[in-house]
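Example: YjbQ family protein.
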Amino acid sequence: MKQTPVLVTEAATIATSVLTVPSKGEGFIDITAEVARFLKQTGSTTGMVTLFIRHTSASLTIQENADPDVLADLITSLRRLAPTDGGWRHTVEGPDDMPAHIKTMLTCSSLQIPVLDGALALGTWQAIYLIEHRTRPHSREVVMQFMGS
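Written out as structure tokens, the predicted fold is:
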């Protein structure tokens, strides 16, 4: 194993912005470029970006960005885990709403990504995605916050 030297810095910057993401319905939306743009605007080099989605029927994830079949298979898996015809009691907002809540519970409402040398410390094949779990289009909000120096 190899570890780089520990760099201790004082958090001098806290920057916050809200990203509004339009969805076209169920699916993955790559927001990596928007998060990187936000980070660049802070002018900071070391710290942490926290992302938080302000919804209970959409979520966030870090996933492979090379093979689109991965995202298609993930949607298929989520549909199997929480089908629209699952006999749910909560149907006031439509048959896709309760499954969307379950899918959100199984995924993430927030993420933290380290920032190294002014860049998101994502792996080669990683991207940040908003997952829309509802079938119709929505406007989603992601709070982005950087803390560091």
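The chain has a mean pLDDT of 94.
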